[in-house]
Amino acid sequence: MANNYQWFPGHMAKALRAMREDIKLVDVLIELVDARAPISTGNPSIQELAEGKIHIVVLNKKDMADPEVTKEWLDFFRGNGMLAAAVDSKKKNEVTSVENLLTKLARDEFKESDARFEAAVRAAGGDPGKRNVRIMVTGIPNVGKSTFINTFAGRASAKTGNKPGVTRGKQWIRLKSGNDLLDTPGVLYVKPLSEESGMRLAFLGSLNDNNLSMDELALDFVKWCIEAYPGCLASKYGIEETEGLETMEAIGAKRGCLKKGGVIDYERAAGIIIDDFRNARIGRLSLERPE
Asked: What is the CATH number assigned to the segment(s) 213-278?
């Protein structure tokens, strides 16, 4: 049976409602997307929430994406008047550069004449001239948000995991710079996904694997990879690429995914193929590029 690439758990709807209130507390919104699929892993709901705020789209996991395609995406976003950066969130200097940019932009927009702000800060015993920048980091599940935040904060402040749904509640984190960071749960778009976008999210692990047929998912990936990056699977696994199912079976046989009687174990083969893609062992592949 073909996969239905749709998934929006109830806790995400609740998180999205909470974000509508939380966004009022921050100056800056960092939206993480996966560099391998920046549109499919983006969230129009978040973009709507960001109206009136400094908003930067961060293409995370750039080390796993096709570098030429990532450059095209940065040109695309910047050409549409958006702030955009590509990072490997495990590298402190790349994450810090994002904070430095946003801190400067936010402080440039602070209005020193805002009487209500000054009065509130003075009443709290603070200096209105030293207001911290309040930053919200958000993104759909499994785009590497927790790793980004931990690198941002310089310590393991947020839970990390390799499956969607690890971060369920919001938390404020004080950064070494003095800025305040608001972490939020991963939120998928409320409206139905297109078949193509849903499939890309499933490839990346942003949908719950337990709700999917993994052998069908792997077959869909193999078909896509043969078309988008011909020769890539042949080079990785030392097999001959033909059509999708035969290629998947060849990979399974090469990796010893066999049941009694030499029958292909599709479930094991699927697990190897999807895991290799998600960890960039097949190569630096991008699932979509600007039209």
From this structure: 1.10.1580.10
- Report d(CA 14, CA 12) in Å as an integer: 5
Q: Are 224 and 244 in contact (CB under 8 A)?
A: no
* Neighbour order of strands in the sheet with 171-174: 83-86, 54-60, 28-34, 134-139, 180-183, 171-174
> What pLDDT is stored for residue 195 in this prediction?
84
Using pLDDT thresholds of 50, 70 and 90, give the confidence band for residue 142.
confident
Which amino acid appears at position 66 of this protein?
D
Phi-psi region of 238 (alpha: psi -120 to 50; beta: other; left: phi over 0): left
Q: What are the two backbone dihedrals, phi and then psi, of residue 28, each rounded to the nearest 5 degrees?
A: -130, 140
Which has the higher per-residue pLDDT, 222 or 156?
222
37-93 residue pLDDT tens: 999 998 777 777 777 788 899 999 999 999 999 999 999 999 998 899 999 999 999
Backbone angles phi, psi at 134, to 5 degrees: -100, 125
User: Residue 59 in contact with residue 74, Cβ under 8 Å?
Assistant: yes
Neighbours of 81 (CB within 10 A): 6
Please tell me the distance from the alpha carbon of residue 69 to that of residue 88, in angstroms, as a whole number.
15
Q: So where are the chain's domains?
A: 10-183, 213-278
Domain 10-183 architecture? 3-Layer(aba) Sandwich (3.40)
Torsional class of 231: left (φ above 0), alpha (ψ -120 to 50), beta (otherwise)? left
DSSP for residue 67: H
CA distance 99 to 201: 27
Torsion of CA 94, 99, 105, 111, to 10 degrees: -170
What pLDDT, in 10s, does the model give residues 13-43?
Answer: 566 676 777 777 788 889 999 999 999 998 7
Contacts of 51 (CB under 8 A, 6+ apart): none
